[in-house]
Task: inverse folding
């Protein structure tokens, strides 16, 4: 059976990335590998739109979030965390774990933090050193207006460190690290970067680098001082995940060829098409501020998630994600992250349409995919002749 | 040019491992992946010779060492660390970093810790909670008699946690986790496990698991409580490095087919052959207690390391390792770890022989490899008819 992944991480691997990862293994303390790391770093700077350092880590995205917390802050510091889903909550847990005092803004799942909420929390907190938030919340398919929020923080709280979980936004949604004044932004390999999981990255501002020098938090594997000290010589403090970094390097070449604005536009087009397709099938969207990285929708009451998931997998070879936490069994999530083209959006909605019909849900064959197709076709109408 | 890695990590990848890592990427929260994790865990138990849990981590070996330190001990605890090289020293640094008080036994590079030295240190320390040592020190090519040391610790200091860096010993040297009474043993994917770097493992005794519950150290990404809580359901707390775990799973199948005793015997045979070959070339061995995982030898005074390394790489496609720390430029290190057969040992010494001659060193063509061949042939003479 042909298998197709539509999960918001891991995401499908391009053939080029697979081939590159299968090339002969090279030792990491060689000029050859350092040339790869140098090229990779330039591409990462392009991706984050920054002239500063982007540190690679051998870990999941959570490891890079921990690195941010233990390097930028010290036990006793106060930070604002924004919990609008499973991954926002993780910032709170990380802060608590490392003795940092999190003042948490609880945002209902599926809604987006507003600049006013954050302003109020920052005014209400005693000496808040940082803000830890999620650009695109994977558990709910919700994106915040990071540009507006960053502008508010930079203008009104210039010394506060703005730390962004960009794990499902980098390479999918517009994000301009330097221009927007972000201080730390993390991402992982298995999302927009189209590579298997296992490496993560942290972009750091000058303000963040100064904070790193002052932090009294205990850290060694994730000590960014060690990583920054050898970054210019294209080295890593510990043995890196060589093949995964080669994969990311190849993926970034593909992304560079496509162009960042084109990639963002593609994700927007696919998300819109998926939203229209699901609506045409009669599904209600979950998020009130949907992210272009993935689309979450409520399952019809008559549909049992486990059965639908099973049908999608065994009958059509399609893997989509279900809900997390309180929403397990209640929502489904379809990824637009990474290596997808227009036809893939037709494919996933086609499978969903048929699986829903098989589950007894009254959908009409062709209705969902026609809406997808119509939405995708709008690009032809907007092209200059 | 044909490239051959003879570095003590990363080590060469078997074709089967490469192919397995290139199979379609599967999502980690699926039954299919859980079946792989279940199979992998049984194989890991076989490898460590333990009936207890072996936790996978997405990190380098250093990450697994950190996980050991922050989970088994608490700030203020006293531990004995054994520093006989770069990696032994890492235990000391890790302990210090996390507020644990290391009483360090300094062992001259190239010599092995003796049980008496450890006994004395344990008697001299105030309430030592653990011993942190290196089975096979990669920076010097030296192995300790872990069986004898473990026997002494278990008999005389039954409550002390014995933590072993097995990064270049697991799958190369005899190591029996349960029978010898080890409490924590870490290894990495890119050594005896014949897979690219990026995942590491920690085997844990019941004593260790009790200590983990009591530790007050701050940890989240490396929190082994979280990992142990989901291990039985073949899950991981964070997104794992899926393709690398598949690679390790395949490598372990190959190892299982060969048999552990056979693998240990092969490493012993190759190390002996390399030692004999280097001696026949006129090189002096570095270690007084050589490990079967790799062979370290002094460079002849007339030979410049950088030039020799360059010749080996550009003329013969061979990568060996140089010295680390004070011994950079003074020694060379040849790996026997993982995917090597008898003929590979002839190959590496053949290349070294020619590179040495090219550098002006007075070696006789064929002398080194004849000694290798003679040593390897002994197996034929010792076989029962």
Result:
């Amino acid at each position: 059976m042909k298998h197709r992944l539509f999960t918001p991480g891991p995401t499908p691997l391009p053939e080029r990335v697979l081939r590159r990862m299968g090339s002969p293994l090279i030792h990491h303390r060689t000029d050859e590998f350092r040339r790869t790391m140098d090229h990779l770093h330039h591409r990462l700077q392009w991706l984050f739109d920054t002239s500063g350092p982007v540190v690679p880590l051998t870990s999941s995205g959570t490891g890079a979030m921990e690195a941010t917390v233990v390097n930028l802050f010290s036990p006793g510091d106060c930070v604002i965390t924004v919990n609008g889903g499973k991954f926002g909550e993780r910032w709170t847990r990380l802060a608590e774990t490392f003795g940092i005092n999190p003042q948490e803004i609880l945002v209902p799942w599926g809604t987006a933090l507003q600049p006013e909420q954050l302003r109020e929390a920052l005014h209400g907190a005693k000496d808040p050193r940082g803000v830890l938030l999620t650009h695109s919340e994977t558990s709910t398919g919700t994106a915040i207006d990071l540009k507006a929020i960053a502008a508010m923080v930079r203008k009104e709280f210039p010394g506060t460190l703005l730390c962004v979980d960009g794990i499902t936004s980098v390479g999918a949604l517009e994000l301009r690290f330097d221009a927007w004044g972000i201080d730390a932004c993390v991402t992982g390999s298995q999302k927009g970067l189209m590579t298997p999981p296992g490496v993560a990255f942290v972009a750091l501002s000058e303000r963040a680098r100064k904070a790193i020098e002052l932090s009294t938090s205990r850290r060694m594997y994730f000590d960014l001082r060690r990583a920054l000290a050898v970054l210019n010589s294209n080295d890593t403090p510990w043995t890196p995940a060589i093949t995964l970094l080669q994969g990311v390097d190849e993926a970034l070449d593909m992304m560079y060829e496509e162009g960042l604005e084109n990639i963002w536009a593609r994700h927007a087009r696919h998300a819109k098409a998926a939203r229209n397709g699901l609506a045409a099938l009669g599904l209600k969207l979950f998020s009130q501020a949907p992210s272009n990285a993935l689309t979450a929708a409520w399952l019809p009451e008559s549909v049992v998630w486990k059965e639908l998931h099973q049908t999608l997998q065994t009958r059509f070879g399609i893997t989509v994600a279900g809900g997390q936490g309180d929403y397990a069994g209640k929502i489904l999530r379809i990824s637009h992250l990474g290596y997808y083209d227009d036809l893939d959006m037709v494919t996933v909605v086609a499978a969903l349409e048929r699986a829903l019909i098989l589950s007894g849900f009254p959908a009409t064959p062709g209705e969902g995919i026609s809406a997808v197709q119509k939405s995708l076709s709008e690009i032809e109408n907007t092209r200059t002749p």
Summary: Residues 188 and 200 of chain B are 4 Å apart (CA to CA).
